[in-house]
Amino acid sequence: xxxxxxxxxxxxxxxxxxxxxxxxxxxxxxxxxxxxxxxxxxxxxxxxxxxxxxxxxxxxxxxxxxxxxxxxxxxxxxxxxxxxxxxxxxxxxxxxxxxxxxxxxxxxxxxxxxxxxxxxxxxxxxxxxxxxxxxxxxxxxxxxxxxxxxxxxxxxxxxxxxxxxxxxxxxxxxxxxxxxxxxxxxxxxxxxxxxxxxxxxxxxx
Length: 205
Ligand SMILES: Nc1nc2c(ncn2[C@@H]2O[C@H](COP(=O)(O)OP(=O)(O)OP(=O)(O)O)[C@@H](O)[C@H]2O)c(=O)[nH]1
Ligand SMILES: [Mg+2]
Description:
The protein is an alpha/beta fold. It has helices at residues 21-24, 49-57, 101-112, 127-139, 151-156, 163-170, 185-193; strands at residues 37-42, 61-65, 72-80, 83-89, 117-123, 144-149, 174-176. It has a 7-stranded mixed sheet with strand order 2-3-4-1-5-6-7, with helices on both faces.
């Protein structure tokens, strides 16, 4: 007797665990309703944007070339509070004034997309080198949150980040993360939830 659980129906293993069932479900399409918020992850190369992107989005991800370029951009859905949010993982950039194709794509994505929030990911070990881009993003009027990532490595080097003081000085939310260790992700989601339209508290005039 053949196993009826496999795709070609020719498996003779009667004890087949039915693994094919795992793949039968069509993955949910990456659908975004017009009311859904979009957010972007930006920052210098190698700071952990893509690791953070994976932590936020899970498996519903598409990768495509940015129109007219060979630069790949990943998009995925995240559940933030009660809402679906489209998350865009941008290529590494040093400045809003682009030199490379990657930087041009990142800049265009930031300035030509309607974004509810922008998360700048920085390396906690090199804050001083990363903050000039933070100032540019703030000056560009982007709704910025700062994810100070690689806190595990910073701790190992005996470095401390004064989260509250940094948030006050910059005037934006600052969240400490170690994306590779899945730390600080819930705090980041909570901070994001406060930026989403329905989570905003209406202040009476
Ligand atoms: N120790 C540590 N390593 C991390 C952390 N986050 C990311 N990394 C590592 O840093 C490296 C770069 O991570 P990526 O997510 O690819 O960085 P990126 O910002 O997307 O880089 P580009 O796409 O080149 O701009 C990888 O080896 C990650 O595993 C973290 O919180 N702690
Ligand atoms: Mg990346």
